[in-house]
Amino acid sequence: MEDSHDKRGWISRNRKTIAVIILLIMIPQFVIYTINLANQIYRDAHPELDPFYEFEYNLTVWIAPENEEFTLHVDIYASEQDAYSRVNRYHGYGIRVEPLDNEKNDLHLYTVPEGRLNVWVKVYFDYDTQEPFIILKLDMGQKITTTLLDREISILVEPLVIDSI
After folding, report:
1. Which of 13, 35, 48, 83 qualifies as a FRET site for 139, CA 20 to 30 Å off?
2. Do residues 134 and 74 both lie within one domain?
């Protein structure tokens, strides 16, 4: 009588070993691919963290000094509709203003696409409710001044100019 164990092929006799070897080859590749994909998604969401990323625009905000401290929030959008519905925000800043603080704040815009002629700016004080707010169309290189809750605020977005030495 023949032993049925001998009739089976080498693959069926060693299927557990083959499965382990295949998993040992595939799992590290899958993990590396997943980590690289997660890093790319994170870098796309936070380009300012990339040391080779160059920002294209300067944002300057002047706030008249007050006797109280507050936070002014400035969000940059592509369109007025985006600003009202709070979607597709290019960038947002919370500027802390202390009593009799320096009124000029220079910031960099990392995520505004190159070549924009204008952006929409949403200015507000309360981060949670975003009320009261004002939405302004801001042409590149044009300083605009407005008042919100009796505080004078001026905003300028201009292309970055690098002086060559």
Report:
1. 48
2. yes
The torsion angle over the Cα atoms of residues 81, 84, 88 and 94, rounded to 10 degrees, is 140
Query: What does the alpha-carbon distance between residue 140 and residue 108 come to, in Å, rounded to a whole number?
Result: 14
Number of Cβ atoms within 10 Å of the Cβ of 80? 13
- pLDDT, tens digit, for every residue of 108-153? 887 777 777 888 999 988 888 888 889 999 888 899 998 888 888 8
Task: Note whether residue 51 is domain-resident.
Answer: no
Encode 15-49 in three state secondary structure: HHHHHHHHHHHHHHHHHHHHHHHHHHHHHHHCHHH
Same domain? 36 vs 99: no
Which tokens go with 89?
């925000």
Decide if 64 contacts 152 (C-beta within 8 A): yes
Question: Does the residue 52 lie in any domain?
Answer: no
Say how far residue 65 (Cα) sits from the centre of its chain: 29
Q: Residue 107 falls within a domain, yes or no?
A: yes
